[in-house]
Known about the structure:
Cytochrome Bc1 Complex, Chain D, domain 2; mainly alpha; 5 helices
Amino acid sequence: MKSRRLAVLLAVVAGLAFTACERIDRNMWDNPAYKAQEEPVRLAPKDSIPTKGIERVPPLAEASRLANPLKPAKEDLARGKDLFGIFCVPCHGDSGRGDGAVGKKFVPAPADLRVGSPVMGLSDGQLFVVVSSGLGAMPAFRADLSPGERWQVVSFLRTLK
Length: 161
């Protein structure tokens, strides 16, 4: 009789333990998939502040006061050209004319970025804000490029003919 009570008690405890395991939000059958050797994406908590502080990009009207901190060095222009090739060429094209493969599908077409165009009449600070925050159909690149990289792109834009 005692062994039977013990067996029933163990069965009840085991049943509760297995039931509790199934109530966990994530188990072996319900896990997000990752590629081989890929870290899981850890999103920052809402309203968290980066350790380097929050970057303030002024509105376009105030941007003319910003000055490009980079001197037109060969390294910066080369890096700016590489970044332009990655982020800008699909819409603006190799020459900056606004005739990129993706840009041909936009109405209105992407802006002409060559010297002498109205867009290039903007100050370096205004171009920095446009690259950072986007304008019209152009997306913002603040999340993709560091401030230094955005200034390198602005420096390279000044060389387009």
